[in-house]
């Protein structure tokens, strides 16, 4: 299992993380607004295929690190629709429909003793810059999810993004 996201095909990046379980606890961090808000974005989810997804991004609340001015534009809401739903194993939804993007994110969970394997796949990413942004963003958000599940102080969000964007710049260049 790589600690980095990998490009599995054109326009697709996949991440794997081994998380402390049980699976129902991890599922709650994907589907419950308050818990999801601790690592990604709060917001209501209509938990059925076709249901509406609202993601209220409040990056300044993810870690003790303040949001740099150039990133404040990323605060706000984004919307999608659930495209796959099989609790507590599968959740898929479209991403940022309001911007005209047609990407989709899928979370797959499987139990292994007391741990849970999370596989996150983001598909239909338009270009290299989008891939860099998405890869560094998911890497950073997943790190904060790991920290929350391990009940430790969340790592600095924006510093991690900057470091990971440079790292993915090198990694994606090699592809």
Overview of the structural elements:
30% of the residues lie in helices and 31% in strands. The protein has helices spanning 23-31, 33-36, 128-149, 157-173, and strands at residues 6-9, 12-20, 52-57, 76-86, 90-95, 103-112, 115-123. The protein has one domain: 2-Layer Sandwich (Alpha-D-Glucose-1,6-Bisphosphate, Chain A, domain 4). The mean pLDDT is 93. It is α+β, with helices and mostly antiparallel strands.
Short descriptors:
Alpha-D-Glucose-1,6-Bisphosphate, Chain A, domain 4
The structural class is alpha+beta
The major β-sheet equals: 7 strands, antiparallel
CATH fold-level label: Alpha-D-Glucose-1,6-Bisphosphate, Chain A, domain 4
**In the CATH hierarchy, what is the architecture at level 2?**
2-Layer Sandwich
Instruction: Give, in spatial order, the strands making up the sheet with the most strands.
Output: 1-2-7-6-5-4-3
**Strand content of the residues, in percent?**
25-35%
The average pLDDT value, as a whole number, equals: 93
Proportion of helical residues: 25-40%
Shape: globular
Count of alpha/pi helices: 4
Number of strands: 7
**Alpha carbon gap, first and last residue:** 19 Å
Helix/strand order, N-terminal first: EEHHEEEEEHH
Unreliable stretches (pLDDT < 50, length at least 5) are: none
User: How many domains in all?
Assistant: 1
Write the layout of secondary structure elements.
Blueprint: E1 6-9, E2 12-20, H1 23-31, H2 33-36, E3 52-57, E4 76-86, E5 90-95, E6 103-112, E7 115-123, H3 128-149, H4 157-173
Antiparallel strand pairs: 1-2, 2-7, 3-4, 4-5, 5-6, 6-7
